[in-house]
Write a structure and sequence with these properties.
mainly alpha, 10 helices, about 85% helix, transmembrane helix
């Protein structure tokens, strides 16, 4: 009895120490969240070329597998006694993936650059007339709304003085800073181009080595943790891979469809800058939830110079398109890929977007879905060990659980 009592106190003390340590670690992490995020950003920027290669290899892996299998079947049927056909099929599949990526980038550049140059030229030519149209439109609104006109005129002098103060105290003294930022932006853009080129080379290596790397990783896992836990880790890793693959590839397909729909709609009602705006809407749609609105803001500003009515029509169309995507197209393509409730989708995008920017917003949903699933599985595991129900319906309107009978007592 004495031994059992001591053992019980020892377990209680050990549990208390573990809880205190976990609380301290969580407190430390939350207090230094900005420092941790900055450190992660520095690490990511340092190995960004490798990350580009990993992302491209991840996206091109299904294409690579299919082409490699197809070429292997052709070579094996043409040369039945040739033993090296598998090696050459992989090499040709890698080359095909590289050509496909270069073709896509080149096609986008050839589509976007002329349209961008044309758009900039049109904006410069439209600017005087656009400003005049906007001024006439505002005057027309003010003439029809005398109360609103009085409010604007009453505050006109104050607004003018504020704008003048901003120009003299903030903008003009910082011209050199703006020029430096522009120069650093150009240098960063060149750095991105270099990283993409290096990433293409990394992608080629990873596509050829992915089977070997996966087998080596499995071997290390089983060597360290054994068979039972190793099987769990391998299963979870496969789930994570499938989750990201389905979500990201599905989101890219969804975004392409949205860009095409936007292109046909804008062409049908004869809006300007059709190709440029459709590409912007399609690319930003990769970001869940906020993507269409992020792409809509610069597009609306661009259309506002042409016609306020056109800009308003486009704004209404984007709202309609977002609803079509969110309720029809997106669910059809993505299905229940993540299984996350809407609140957690929004929460994950805000959290990861705040920590890691645009990239964080793109990977937020699948990452949080994995965390959400892991927490759920751990909860079920510990509930089963304690002999409690795992279904959430048993905890709806729960007052307490009887300690002896384990009966669920509902609130009155």
């Amino acid at each position: 009895m004495k031994y059992n009592k001591n053992e019980r106190y020892f377990k209680l003390g050990l549990t208390a120490v573990v809880v205190i340590i976990i609380a301290l670690v969580i407190s430390l992490v939350f207090n230094n969240l900005g420092i941790i995020a900055s450190a992660i950003r520095i690490i990511i920027s340092t190995i960004s070329s490798v990350l580009y290669g990993v992302v491209m290899a991840f996206l091109m892996a299904p294409v690579y597998d299919r082409i490699s299998r197809w070429i292997g079947e052709i070579l094996s049927s043409l040369f039945p006694k040739w033993k090296k056909y598998e090696r050459y099929s992989k090499m040709l599949a890698t080359l095909a993936c590289l050509i496909i990526l270069i073709f896509i980038v080149f096609a986008l550049i050839m589509m976007i650059i002329p349209e961008l140059v044309n758009s900039i030229t049109n904006v410069i030519s439209y600017a005087p007339s656009g400003a005049a149209n906007l001024e006439n439109w505002l005057k027309d609104i003010l003439n029809k709304n005398p109360d609103f006109e009085k409010l604007i005129i009453g505050n006109y002098q104050d607004i003018s003085e504020r704008l003048s103060d901003i120009a003299t105290t903030s903008i003009l003294p910082n011209v050199n800073t703006y020029i430096k930022n522009l120069s650093s932006g150009v240098i960063n853009a060149l750095g991105v181009v270099v990283n993409i080129i290096i990433g293409l080379m990394v992608m080629m290596y990873l596509l050829n080595m992915k089977t070997i790397l996966a087998s080596q990783a499995k071997k290390i896992v089983y060597a360290i943790v054994g068979v039972k836990i190793g099987n769990e880790i391998v299963t979870e890793a496969r789930y994570i891979k499938n989750m990201f693959e389905k979500f990201i590839v599905g989101k890219i397909i969804d975004s392409i469809i949205i860009g095409i729909i936007n292109y046909f709609f804008m062409s049908f009602i004869h809006m300007p800058y059709v190709l440029l705006i459709s590409v912007v809407v399609g690319v930003t749609n990769v970001i869940p939830f906020f993507g269409p609105f992020i792409g809509a803001i610069p597009s609306i500003v661009l259309l506002l110079l042409v016609s306020p009515i056109t800009a308003l029509q486009f704004a209404v169309w984007i709202l309609v398109l977002q609803q079509i995507d969110g309720n029809i197209i997106g669910p059809k393509i993505l299905g229940q890929t993540t299984g996350l409730p809407s609140f957690w989708v929004l929460f994950s995008i805000l959290l990861f977007g705040g920590l890691f920017g645009i990239v964080g917003m793109i990977i937020a949903v699948p990452t949080w879905a994995i965390i959400y699933r892991t927490i759920g599985r751990l909860s079920e595991h510990f509930l089963k060990k304690k002999g409690l129900e795992t279904d959430s319906k048993h905890y709806m309107d729960l007052d307490h659980i009887d300690e002896e009978t384990k009966k669920y007592i509902k609130l009155e």
